[in-house]
Amino acid sequence: MYSDFAYVYDRLTKDIDYSKMADYIEVLFSEYATVKPKLLLDLACGTGSLTLELARRGYDMIGVDSSADMLNCALEKSAGLEVSPLWVCQDMRSFELYGTVDAVVCTLDSLNYITDYSDLKSVFGLVKNYLNPGGLFIFDINTPYKFENILRDNFFYEIGEDITYIWQNSYDPATGICTFDLTFFVRESGELYRRLEEEQQQRAWSFEEIKAALGESGLKLIDILEQYTLNPPDEKSERCFFVVSA
């Protein structure tokens, strides 16, 4: 997974405002943390854009991702910068750290890629293990509403000069699993394009399932928020943030 996809990921996600995301995380720290965190873990950090944005703001950062290719991209982006996060290639379901951290963040619906409940509990249990007492765990998810009404069996595409993608979904409401079939055409030189294909799966986790997995892992749910606000989500929220403490 992600072997070729890693190298076009940043071009596909160029519309994501990582500065705004970091601003929001800092707002949540101000609202919910008893002590301002210093050492942060960015779980499923991808190519490290958020990790580096937080590092520039003075946090000591650890970025964990299961894809060596994603981390190679992160390493290239951090080369020559004054900040130097620690990049660790590990699966979030079985990651190991040398010590504890003050806060953990996991964004861009990374937890939706965990499709098995026991694996979700494993992730939460490891976060509990490596999070300092009272430390915050902040993560977001695509909501069941988004899967059932936006992503479900839909077809998306974008045609660009350097990269074109075709994205087709199939959603199984019985399992909550949505399969993404992705095809990319990436310009290499002149009129030469390379075709890349990727299949990914996400699961539509209900709030009740997440609450149960958090409780079984010894974590405490503090709040569930509409993306980038301090308001509770409504029935049509497409993405929401969970604020959790150890």
In words, what does this structure look like?
- By secondary structure, the protein is of the alpha/beta class.
- It folds into two domains: 6-143 and 205-245, 3-Layer(aba) Sandwich (Rossmann fold); 145-203, S-adenosyl-L-methionine-dependent methyltransferases (N-terminal domain of TfIIb, Single Sheet), CATH 2.20.25.
- The chain is 30% helix and 35% strand.
- The protein has a seven-stranded mixed beta sheet, sandwiched between helices. A four-stranded antiparallel beta sheet has the order 6-7-8-9, with helices on one face.
- Helix 2 (18-32) crosses helix 3 (49-56) and helix 5 (117-130) crosses helix 7.
- The radius of gyration is 18 Å and the shape is globular.
- The two termini are 31 Å apart.
- The model has no long low-confidence stretch (mean pLDDT 93).
Element layout with pairings:
Elements lengths: L5 H7 L5 H15 L6 E5 L5 H8 L3 E6 L2 H11 L7 E4 L11 E6 L10 H14 E12 L1 H8 L3 E5 L3 E10 L4 E13 L2 E12 L3 H10 L3 E7 L12 E7 L1
Helix pairs in contact: 2-3, 5-7
Q: So, the CATH homologous superfamily of the largest domain?
A: Vaccinia Virus protein VP39
- Poorly predicted sequence stretches spanning 5 or more consecutive residues: none
What is the C-level CATH assignment of the largest domain?
Answer: Alpha Beta
Give the overall pLDDT as a whole number. Answer: 93
End-to-end span in angstroms? 31 Å
Q: Can you write the helix and strand succession as a string? A: HHEHEHEEHEHEEEEHEE
Q: Features of this protein?
A:
7-stranded mixed β-sheet, 4-stranded antiparallel β-sheet, 7 helices, N-terminal domain of TfIIb, Rossmann fold, globular, 11 strands, 30% helix, 2 domains, 246 residues, alpha/beta
